[in-house]
Amino acid sequence: MHFGALIPAAETAATAGLAAWMAVAGFWRRPAGQLLSWTMFCYATFTIVSLRGTRAGRTQDVNIYDVIPPGSFFVPPAQLALILEFLTSTGTFEGLEGEGRVLSRHGERPITVRNGRVAP
Questions:
Q1: Which of 84, 86, 96, 99 has its CA nearest to residue 55?
Q2: Lower CB count within 10 Å: N or C terminus of the chain?
Q3: Between vectors from CA 44 to CA 43 and to CA 49, what angle results, nearest 5°?
Q4: CA distances from 107 to 33, 53, 115 (A)
């Protein structure tokens, strides 16, 4: 009996099974706390927002990634509120306005920024 062809076939089957499991665990909602669940997509909450700031009566676009630490890319609503507070309390901007979306495991929902505050 020759086992040389059996090992690559077993590796291929194991790889296909692992890839299928990752796709199911990553893209379909699973119960919390399940063994080996892929929670990356389930618990990340972040915002995508276009901001305009007013300074000395002039309006300009604001890039929040100029303010947050390098390497940060998830900006949840609570952190966005802190960034807005920082930008207004330091006098960088007198007012901030904008629109955007919050993305989470519950789907997308719109948010607005008025007078430097996040309003769902």
A1: 96
A2: N
A3: 145
A4: 20, 28, 26
The alpha-helical segments, DSSP class H, found in the chain are 6-27, 40-43, 77-89
For residue 34, give Cα distances in angstroms to 38, 59, 107, 118: 9, 49, 21, 34
Per the listing, tokens 């966005």 go with 80
CB 52 within 8 A of CB 98: yes
pLDDT at 5 over 50: yes
Give me the half-sphere count of Cα atoms (radius 13 Å) on the Cβ side of residue 20: 6
Lowest pLDDT segment from 23-27, 37-41, 56-60 = 37-41
